[in-house]
Write a structure and sequence with these properties.
Strand content: 35-45%
Order of helices and strands: HEEHEEEEHEEEE
Oligomer: single chain
Helix content: 10-25%
Largest sheet: 8 strands, antiparallel
Number of strands: 10
Shape: globular
């Protein structure tokens, strides 16, 4: 745990160059942007990923990697559409999913990419989400970093709840980047 928090501060203090343009999120080799037509986005993403609709009401599709035309269960991110337009996208940067990138590598990668060599203003929030031992025995320590106007980065660390029973599933720390409307600090 201390290692993950130390990596956050090391990544923020030592951000290296990047050139992500506002409005674009590159998932694999596919660039998507807010307002992109659903058919265009899914057609482009389908060349590299296997989109699987997981929510009709949210218009949400999970993206799983394709390796040489075959299905690979590695999670790469998700896209959500409203009225036929992209309104939210996520990219998995590290944890236990795509290519088993570590959460530390993923966190450094996303922050370095977003901040660039000149830095960028952000808002950081840390909290512990307690599920309680009777629910599923897992608590989530979450750090959220908002980069207005359109990026959010999350680091999640799952831990057993105090007094919780051992769970058969193990959750690894994960790092995700979201393309969405993010309010500027007031």
């Amino acid at each position: 745990m201390k290692t993950s928090i130390a990596w956050i501060f090391a990544a923020i203090g030592g951000m290296a160059g990047g050139n992500v343009l506002a409005g674009d999120l590159v998932i694999g080799h596919v660039a998507v942007h807010l307002g992109m037509p659903e058919k265009e986005a899914l057609a482009a993403l389908s060349k590299e990923f296997a989109p699987e609709q997981v929510s009709v009401s949210e218009g949400k599709y999970n993206l799983r990697a394709r390796e040489h035309g075959t299905y690979d269960p590695s999670f790469a991110g998700s896209v959500s559409f409203r009225d036929g337009k992209l309104y939210r996208a996520s990219k998995f940067w590290g944890g236990g999913g795509l290519k088993d990138k570590s959460s530390e590598e993923g966190l450094y990668g996303v922050l370095a990419d977003l901040a660039g060599k000149d830095g960028r203003t952000c808002r950081i929030k840390a909290e512990t989400l307690r599920s309680g031992a009777k629910v599923n025995g897992q608590d989530v320590k979450e750090v959220t970093i908002d980069f207005p106007p359109d990026r959010k980065v999350t680091l999640r660390i799952w831990q057993p709840s105090v007094g919780g029973q051992e769970q058969p599933l193990t959750f690894f720390p994960s790092v995700d980047e979201f393309l969405m409307d993010v309010a500027a600090p007031k």
